[in-house]
Amino acid sequence: MANPLNNEIRYLNPPTVEVKKKKYCRFKKAGIKYVDYKDAEFLKRFLNEQGKILPRRLTGTSLKFQKKVSQAVKRARHLSLLPYVTDLLK
């Protein structure tokens, strides 16, 4: 006696469970104490495609180093090492 209004949910594929990695501050892990504004390639890792600075919740950077990164990006932009706005940076 199969009930057509059966409340069981069946999947074709098993549902995937996302395992989130623990975010870490790459500066603390590598022992970096100074963020160099002249290293544009390193600073591009903290920018998205439009040239905006990525937030801490995405990069995992600590507050102390996020402030240093944002200051270094602003200095690099001022010296034309990085663009203020772009269509495709990466």
In DSSP terms (H or I, runs of 4 or more residues), the helix count works out at 4
The strand count comes to 0
Which percent bin holds the helix content? 25-40%
Helix vs. strand class: mainly alpha
Quaternary? single chain
Might you state the CATH topology name of the domain at 26-78?
A: 30s Ribosomal Protein S18
Residue-averaged pLDDT: 85
> How many strands, which pairing sense, and closed or not: the largest β-sheet?
none
Task: Report, as a whole number of angstroms, the end-to-end distance.
Answer: 60 Å
Uncertain regions: pLDDT < 50 for 5+ in a row?
Answer: none
* Strand residue content: under 5%
Structural description of this entry:
- There is one protein chain.
- With 90 residues, the protein is mainly alpha-helical.
- It has a domain at 26-78: 30s Ribosomal Protein S18 (Irregular).
- The chain has helices at 26-30, 40-43, 56-59, 63-78.
- It starts with 25 loop residues before the first helix and ends in a 12-residue tail after the last helix.
